[in-house]
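Aspartate carbamoyltransferase
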Amino acid sequence: MINNSLYGKSVLGMDSLSAIEIDKILDIASKMKKILISDYKKTSYLRGKSVVNLFFENSTRTRSSFELAGKYLGADVINISKSGSSMTKGESVKDTLLTMAAMEADAVVIRDSSEGSAFFASEIINHHIKMPIVINAGDGAHEHPSQTLLEMLTLKESGVSFKGMKLAVLGDILHSRVARSDIKGFIKMGAKVYLYGPATLVPKEFESMGAVVASSMEEALEGADAVNVLRIQLERAARGFFPTLREYSRLFGLNSERLKLAKKNCKVLHPGPMNRGIEISYDVAYNEKSWIQEEVRNGVAVRMALLYLTMTEGNDLEITD
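Predicted structure tokens:
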């Protein structure tokens, strides 16, 4: 029997998780990963439960991994996008959420381009009807907790200890929900987080969250245990934050020469999709220090753990090698 403090709890951001709960998620995710590499992935841990994925913003990795996570655990999974819903006829997000709750969905996984959308979903459902749990799959530039958790699992499996480690986060910090979740999550686990990118995209205000805004690439990468390279979000960022993509690559992109500043066994992460040749060079994206593809695999395991822990009392998990 496990002490499951996450049962019935919505996961809206890294603020909502304690260090003990993060450790529990990573522990269960490691067990779930055994299912992923097995010959038979279908289980019945969430049999009779329903998961609704509300993805109002385009996604490949997050949406697919939540869908597979629910199905591997035996839940009934429904995917709803804005273009395929009654929202094209004028239905509001509020009405869509209330409809899903009225249909007795047990969990709602939501991604939206608006900051605070997951909190909004939680509040709307909570005040009007029996509340399913809500999991934030990315809300604008606010947070993306499951992405940070899968990064943590990847680093843990690679042998990195969070306490005292140095994580360098490079790129478009201003528009990044991943950066904000990384800062909150990794600092909570005892890590030091350094940020670097164009001054227009890395405001000093991030230091109020406990991160270090580095003044140079050297300061950010020197002695780093891991580097998380963020995608230049041209769909969010208005042009004008830096001169050209070529200039960005030359001044702020991670390449093999710059990576030498970090520790010899430094792990390279990227939330995807990658703009190869811009924020990350081709050789770094695919060399032996890159754990990017392992992140994708771990994303399914982490999301399985989140669904399992929030939707069950967590007392029946028996997974053997």
